Amino acid sequence: VGPVIRASKVDFDVLNVNLMKLETDCKASWDHMKRVAKHDGSQIFKTKINEFLTDAAERIILLSLIKKRVMTRYNKFLLYLGVPPTEATKTKPAELLKVIAEFALEYRTTRERVLQQLEKRANHRERNKTRGKMIIDVGNYSNKSGEHTADSALKELLKSDADADLLADRRKPPPTRLHKLVNITMLRFRSETCVEGTLPKIC
After folding, report:
1. Residue where a domain terminates, one of 73, 91, 109
2. N or C terminus: which one in the chain shows less Cβ crowding within 10 Å?
3. Which residues form the FH2 domain (predicted)?
4. DSSP three-state, residue 197
């Protein structure tokens, strides 16, 4: 796509004019060199100018041949597309290449979008295949483990409370008659003081 886009930005009419101008200037340079060589006897100057103009002429001829071959292939391409020969001369290369470049970019964008949609659908199908099983398995495991942990903690708590109460009952001395009398006396004392108003905080 890159070379097509770059070629679509080239004005081939201007390119043809530039090549013709280069060829004309090169021929004129040869004439100027002959005139300068008559009045200047420096052999080094003649050699350098001669080499430069020869190299320039070869490059101009090579560019002209490349341009001619490119236009020949372009005309064959138009015939391949079904363009009549009468219309082929009117069709500019820049316009046709611009259409081809836009079509190629649009095709590549659409293709990438379609591939992304297909990939998303495939991933969605894979998730749907495994999602239910994973949720059920993990849910059952978490429920069972959670219930087992809660039951174990409750059993341990009840067992520890029962053991603590049993141990406290065993360590507690049996109440005697003296303890009972002391408790009864304290209760009577508190009731009397509450009635008289001497100990409001205890009431």
Report:
1. 91
2. C
3. 1-133
4. coil
Residues 11 and 74 in one domain: yes
Report DSSP letters for 26-89, one per residue: HHHHHHHHHHHHHH---HHHHHHHHHHHHHHHHHHHHHHHHHHHHHHHHHHHHHHHT--HHHHT
Cβ atoms of residues 194 and 202 within 8 Å: yes
Terminal alpha carbon distance of the chain: 99
Q: What is the largest CA-CA distance in the chain?
A: 155
Angstrom distances, CA of residue 98 to CA of 7, 68, 93, 108: 8, 21, 8, 15
Q: How many other CB atoms sit within 10 Å of the CB of residue 176?
A: 9
In terms of residue numbers, what domain contains 67? 2-91
Residues in the chain: 203
Contact 23, 64 (CB under 8 A): yes
**4 close to 107: Cβ distance less than 8 angstroms:** no
The answer to whether 71 and 96 are in contact (CB under 8 A) is: no
Q: Which structure tokens are listed for 139?
A: 């849910």
Compare 106 and 166 and report the one with higher pLDDT.
106
